[in-house]
Amino acid sequence: MPEAEAMKLLGAGLAAGLGMLGPGIGIGMLGAAAMNAIGRNPEARGAILTNMILAIAFAEALGIYALIVAVILALVA
How far is Cα 75 from Cα 64, in angstroms, rounded to an integer? Predict the structure, then answer.
């Protein structure tokens, strides 16, 4: 039975790691694009930052969902 426990924890680790990889890359790309946009049009700073923070919150939510799935995999089954 130790193999089943190891596979369960491996699955949880993969779910968390791969599930948070996309949001991490997305947040980095959002930040870079926002800074580029502010550099090109400084007058629109407020609107750009508001939209950037909103998009980052949505991307972060996906990472949190992956964390919840990983915890469920680790504790249940």
Answer: 17
**Contacts of 17-22 spanning 24+ positions with Cβ under 8 A:** 18/66, 19/62, 19/63, 19/65, 19/66, 19/67, 19/69, 19/70, 20/63, 20/66, 20/67, 22/62
Give residue limits of the domains in the chain.
2-75
Place of tokens 């915890």: 71
2-75 maps to CATH 3.40.50.2300: no
pTM for this structure? 0.81
Kindly report, residue by residue over 47-65, the tens digit of the pLDDT.
Answer: 999 999 999 999 999 999 9
